[in-house]
Amino acid sequence: MSIDLVDELRATIQSSACVRPRGAATKLRAPANGCTALDMRRLAGVVDYQPTEFIITAWAGTPVAEVQGLLAAHGQYLPFDPLLTERGATLGGTVAANACGPERYRYGGVRDFIIGARFIDGNGNLIQGGGKVVKNAAGFDYPKLMVGSLGRLGALVEVTFKVFPKPEAYATLRVDRPSLSAALALLPKLTNCPYDLNAIDLVIGAANEAAIFVRVGGLAASLSQRMDRVRSLCGGGEIVTGDAEAQLWRNAREFAWVAEGVPVVKVPLTPSRIPALDARVPSARRRYSVGGNVAWIATSALDELDATLRSLDLAGLILLNAPDDPRIGRRTGHPFAERVIHALDPQNKFGPAAPLRPRVNSPADATRDPR
Hints:
- This protein is an alpha+beta fold.
- The protein has 11 helices and 18 strands.
- The protein has a 9-stranded antiparallel sheet. The protein has a 5-stranded antiparallel sheet with strand order 3-4-8-6-7. A two-stranded parallel ribbon has the order 1-2.
- The radius of gyration is 20 Å and the shape is globular.
- The two termini are about 35 Å apart.
């Protein structure tokens, strides 16, 4: 059945002047603007899963939650910590939006775990890149190219990921500080420490106080000792475990801290640039994730934020509740990206002829992805 759907999608793309891939609409909701909508949710289901090989292949319309459930039954998981799974996020949408959560701090993002992809380009061709083995270096690296492409390069139909063993238990240390500057002073101790930390998030409160959340995962037998070391490093703090601990990070991944309908903007940056940005958005809800390398800003004042980001030479992506174009802030053309777009979508069927922003590395976790 799914093979027939792929052929149907190819025919639709070939016969249409403009198309828009659509998943579960949990993140970006780009207006169709007269384009033909491609419902990718029909392409759902696991194609191949080899627990002993730590490899899973599924159709792009498969809900991430379904894949997570299957992996969990075998003690495995997707380490890049997909966002919005409880809202129905799909694998294809997660790749296209590069939707990684706080735990990408330890192991990396989508780009580090996708090893294969099949997609339909603007000519209706079915293109395959990568494969179903980790050490596959043959051909152009299309899978990584599709990460963060926002559906601009083609319609993803199938993806393959490597997976990891799931930590047996988790615990989180909460460290409260009276100000952002006090919290940022502690951050280098954590990012440079010899301990294996799964996530480091910094949350700004209503009175501009700050709280750092440090998550550690691993064997239950050694977790208590590891948390004591982290608490000693931080000079104190509250250790949270069990259901309360899991809920903390579920709220982060599902953006439960954001009011319904308020746009949420993702801004890649480095910890040293946080003070300048934070000073310009005092009324917005904000959370600095991935060790201070990703800012999440919830605000309805998008024009003001766009101007702020431009003045600070920062780029942003409206991941939730984008009114139209999700890109704000700095926009830099890239000749290679433009050539790739022209090669894969010469008739401009997948969107406006706007260049993708080039990848920008950050020192703390190599910012494996600029979006």
